[in-house]
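User: I'm writing a tutorial on reading structure tokens. Could you give me a worked example: one chain, its sequence, then its tokens, then a sentence or two explaining what the tokens reveal?
Assistant: Sure. Here is the example chain.
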Amino acid sequence: MKKWTALVSLYALFIGVHTYAQDNVIELQFERLISSIQPQKSILERTASFENHSRLLNALRVTNLDKVLNYKGEFTVFAPSNLAFEKLSQATIDKLFDPENRRVLKAMLSYHIIADKLSASTILRAMCRGNGVAKFTTIQGEKITATMKGIDIVLTDKSGNSAVIVTADSNQSNGIIHEIDTVFVPEILF
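And here are its predicted structure tokens:
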């Protein structure tokens, strides 16, 4: 009986090891497949295909930032949706889109762009290293602070304006897009 039990135990161990190895091979092949899929669209091309970012796209084109977001570099865009733009007063929108204020609009949009690829997990890891706070420098040269509120990543500019990332990690060929629910309009711009 001892021989039989030892043989069954050895066979069960072999089957377990073999199954574990197959699972790991499948998992490894799946990870390789996912990592080999490269997004074909740039941030600008993807923004143009999102209906809920038409106002952002218009603002990028007016300020020539569309050309920047079509480069091959690595960018992170905290992209305000059309609903985020609707939170702004009509007076603010009129000021921003006044042809005389193109420089102001460009500065405002620059608060939404970082010259680095920051996935949500990268932002979370930075917050863990910073005791719940992470700071990132925008192409405007100002800092955006990331914190957590419940399960949401909240971004705050130096004027105290805050936005929540509502859709994260839209990977593109030249960076990543995170949709946010508020437009950063720093007070110093007006």
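What the tokens reveal: The CA atoms of residues 96 and 105 lie 5 Å apart. The chain has one domain: 38-187.
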